């Protein structure tokens, strides 16, 4: 049986990427630090993926097992020897932490065989696989680096499926939305995986996804949080916020249409389809999940700041994006480590310095001025 190694046995790992591999005839070895999940995968050897619909259709996912990358390093290295694919869905901030072990696995592999291995990071981040590759290279000697060509391939990808936090503690089963899209950038002919779409240029796909699905989601999450809402669908039922989301997506849309020559009517359809996905009540998707990690989400290349700076450069409107950035700056959820760190930074150094440090926005840039203007207005509104 073909084999694949997937780092991150969480929501996207089990509910999306691992499930597609299993359905394509692969044995999936999940690598994670969550001991309970690893034990259950090894004991139960399967789990159910349940669709967030009124019928709640389920699919059984077979041929799965687990390894703990903290306590079973040798076994992970061995699994990498046998795999055709190595994927991750672990969170962008975790990629540097798993890179040393992947590097060990790759070193052993290229010194003992010529079979091709395809590495794909499935994270909400532009160029996540390139970033992972650079971390891996830091842990390889020149001789090993020289052997990667033609053996180890690194492909960027875009992943789109809403998988909320699961409220079935103790079960491996995962509730997912029906829709999914996994786009992988390569011009190589690679072993087929059901549901994987191959493209030669990922940029329009990942930007369209990140600056529509993720920007829209972030606006709902941050404004929902500020107005005391619990879930995404509940927030979108608030007409004022729904209008604000539309206005923000018009701004990212204008940039995407200009940048990639998208058809305006098609793009409007794409936006509307996404808004329908967000309204799914069966997902019960918490605003605090979608808002998680505000420091990462306020990064210069991420879903809020990049479209704002690109729109500004292109002479397009960005005031609604500035409002979204301002709302993210006000996210003070006390169970989110990044939110707490962000609030401490704002308290100590002020918003302008935080925008400079985290978002790489110049002090007196037009975008910075507009964000501060929106931040002050929002602060008054939520008082
Ligand atoms: N949940 C969703 O709807 C979507 C998530 N994504 C992306 O997928 C990635 C994963 O997200 P989720 O699955 O939602 O998160 P999650 O929190 O459900 O899963 C992450 C998994 O990584 C594991 N992990 C954390 N640190 C680790 C380490 N050092 N070594 C090994 N495993 C470690 C955790 O134990 C957890 O099982 C993120 O980059 C996210 O942006 C992308 C599209 C959709
Ligand atoms: O996973 P992140 O990057 O923290 O952001 C949450 C976002 O990811 C998703 O879970 C999947 O795209 C979206 O639901 C949401 O926009």
From TrEMBL:
A GO term, aspect molecular function: mannitol-1-phosphate 5-dehydrogenase activity
Pfam family, one: Mannitol_dh
Entry keyword set: NAD, Oxidoreductase
Record has Cell membrane as a keyword: no
EC number(s) reported in the record: 1.1.1.17
Protein family membership: Belongs to the mannitol dehydrogenase family.
Protein name as annotated: Mannitol-1-phosphate 5-dehydrogenase
